Model the fold of this input.
Amino acid sequence: PCRIRALRQSPWAQRRMAQKKYLQAKLTQFLREDKIQLWKPPYTDENKDVGLALKDLASRYSNKLGCCENEVEKIIEEIRCKAIERGTGNENYKTTGIATIEVFLPSRLKKDKKNVLETRLHISGRDLRSKIAETFGFQENYIKIVINKKLLQLGKSLQEQGVTHNVKAMVLELKQSEEDVRKTSQEEEEKQNEADLKEKQIQRTKKGLEILAKRAEMVVDPETTPYLDIANQTGRSIRIPPSQKKALMLAMGYHEKGRAFLKRKEYGIALPCLLDADRYFCECGRELLDTVDNYAVLQLDIVWCYFRLEQLECLDDAEKKLGLAQKCLKNCYGENHQRLVHIKGNCGKEKVLFLRLYLLQGIRNYHSGNGEEAREYLDKARLLFKELHIDPSKVHSLMQLGFTPQEARLALRACDGNVDHAAIHISNRREELAQIRREEKEKKRRRMENINSLKGMGYSARAARQALHQAGGNLDEALKILLGNPHMWWLNDSAPDASSPHESPSQKGIDQLVYMGFDAAVAEAALRVFRGNVQLAAQTLAHHGGSLPPDLQLPEEDVSSTPSTSPSDSAGTSSASTDEDMDTEAVNEILEDIPEHEEDYLDSTLEDEEIIIAEYLSYVENIRSATD
Done:
């Protein structure tokens, strides 16, 4: 984790900042409702200076809010100045084509002012990153830019990426600024190495997930090749339409990686993974997204990440994402969770998601100036917290029985805190999973037997796996597929072409085929194609009426060719081995972050939530006391 020594605001300063944000949102709301245009007379004169009418407006609104008039006047003046600045920027964009971008800096660099950057939109993402780094004092290679909830692509122009005038850009920092590094020069090299590692980690994540997603589309040997599988709520593998499988694999993979960073509180690295997950989920069908809770959990994780980065104002559609999460959870779990109870027998664990949902809705409403709505959601979150809070002694009791802390928390919530029932719940769940594993193991055993049967007939393991996959595991059907598609024999090798050496078949092999009734010339040609494999040659000739299909017949010049060994045959072995090692490393990093427990996403100590609920309820109380 990045060891940036950011200054922590005092609770009093945090409360003041929260109160100011609330007042800004509330006053903006009033101005919109009253259709007041602060950038026009009588609130702004011809020189764009403040008009006398603004003081009367501040007096009216301060009485309405029960707040200090001077403070309200100051905030209204800030809103007026921003409106004028925005209007000037709009005029400038119309006449010159120079766009204004509002830049949201990391929380440790936040100042009580708006940060803007002017640029033309034909420049590349890389050029914009350079401008931001130069203007605000970052090292260019150690920041990432998020615009419109997407990572800025360096090689494309801003126009190509949908960047427009007045857009918001959020800076994610992988490393401290040069100035801060100089202050602690003895740590400079260490911190630069950390930033390098984080960037490489992000790239390895992408590579590892691409490899695993590709394997999901192939037929691999599960005994030797790690791959990802998609399971339902009970832990059983499920079939996904091929058209959606890769996108879903990538979406779920990026989500799990992002969640792993969230657990480590590395929010700056978590967000790019979560946004990538959102992008791939959107490639899946709407019907699929409405029937699984993964998409709802992702929306909650994205909003939570923005909140923890103190950049909620940069997420314009936080309300939409939370509404989407709520709708998706309702579709998945049913009204009052009845569908969930039918499937699992309880809904205690899933209530953690609703606690997070209500908390984020409360926070969003507070920052939007909706005090009463904020209180309503925060009270719901507080009540759920009381229901879901677990006595540590009960967790300890279950751990004494050999269960993990995670199993204990999940089971206690599922069983309303009853330790005995929780112990039985865990034991039953373990047995269910063990039974599923036994069934999966038996399926693998039968599959390997079928593969070995086909290998015994001369087919490669890869061809056998592919045929069995197409045949739904039926050995007889797989054999028909192989006989009907002799090219599948080449799945384990390069396809036959003029550059491939074909050894002259042995006379003994030709004689065997002739003895079976095949023409000698055809027998020789078949043995050349199948590299001396008499069994495969016989099966193929028999299936095709004693002749080779045209697409398997070798060119004339290839028949007379003799095997040759090229000095370059072994060239690149070392680099290929290195690439393979890097692929293995990338895949293993992904697999390390895939949780073993299928309900890991429901497990939370709720320690952060407890603190934040109390914090925001105090802000809401402060509003009430100010207006009483």
